[in-house]
Specification:
This protein folds into two domains: 97 residues, Immunoglobulin-like (Sandwich), CATH 2.60.40; 137 residues. The protein contains no helices and 19 strands.
Length: 257
């Protein structure tokens, strides 16, 4: 059956789809053909709106006719998260605007080194030393002590020996659209001159568990006998740091406010 005449401005399809087209400023995919009717022959405006930080994202018009518009998402868009339901709005010159819901938005990605990792991401192992005292994890972000400026550092310190263990970093705490992409792991080693009556428990390494990180850490212990005025000394330590790079929407902090 033939379609009847167009009585008002109407959006039919975007890139051949009535719904579901993904708008993005990514230059590989940023070109959109909007077909419909009664857009007029004089160029108007077009934009998408939804729960954006700026409320709406403008489209740059490449071509305008009564039945077809070719446009791009503003390539400079930054600071916006992905959106699963946005509305396309066409504003003809001298005619009522028309809108159509059911589209998506995908932000351009960038990779960044995390300056901080929220404490809620860090899941420490429960540790007790041989004297049955808890050994607390001293978490710093940015890193401190032996590891200044790293994304995060973790130090444990006691007089009695304790076992090595495993900590976990849960990056699902980041905003939607962000993933942990790469890391550099460092750990503290007791200097050779301190390795008197030396004891070591555990291993030091870091591994990916999906998009999260599991860190295995070791304890290093030394004991010195009393000498002249210097008292006997026992020291048990563990320390490591991570630098973590994440990928996500451009211009957006990966952490919830």
């Amino acid at each position: 059956m033939a379609q009847g005449p167009c009585l008002r401005p109407t959006i039919g399809t975007v890139n051949g789809q009535a719904k579901g087209t993904v708008f993005t400023p990514d230059p590989q995919f940023n070109l959109y053909t909007i077909k419909g009717c009664m857009f007029g022959d004089t160029q108007g405006q077009a934009y998408i709106y939804g729960p954006f930080a700026t409320g709406q994202v403008s489209l740059q018009i490449e071509f305008w006719s009564d039945t077809q518009i070719i446009a791009k998402v503003n390539p400079q868009v930054t600071g916006e998260l992905d959106q699963s339901n946005v509305t396309l709005v066409v504003v003809p010159s001298g005619a009522p605007q028309v809108q159509k819901a059911g589209f998506k938005f995908y932000a351009v990605r960038e990779t960044m080194l995390l300056a901080k990792i929220l404490p809620s991401v860090f899941v420490p192992a429960a540790v007790t030393d041989m004297a049955n005292h808890p050994v607390l994890a001293q978490y710093s972000s940015p890193g401190s002590g032996y590891f200044p400026g790293r994304s995060a550092s973790v130090v444990r310190d006691a007089t009695s020996v304790f076992n090595g263990g495993q900590d976990f970093f849960d990056f699902s705490k980041m905003k939607p659209g962000f993933i942990a992409e790469s890391m550099v792991f460092e750990y503290w080693d007791m200097p050779p001159e301190q390795r008197v009556n030396f004891q070591e428990n555990g291993v030091s390494n870091a591994e990916w568990v999906g998009d999260n990180i599991r860190v295995s850490w070791k304890m290093q212990h030394f004991h010195t006998s009393p000498f002249l005025t210097a008292p006997a000394r026992d020291d048990s330590q563990s320390g490591y740091a991570l630098n973590v790079w994440v990928s996500g929407p451009r211009g957006v902090s990966p952490w919830p406010n």
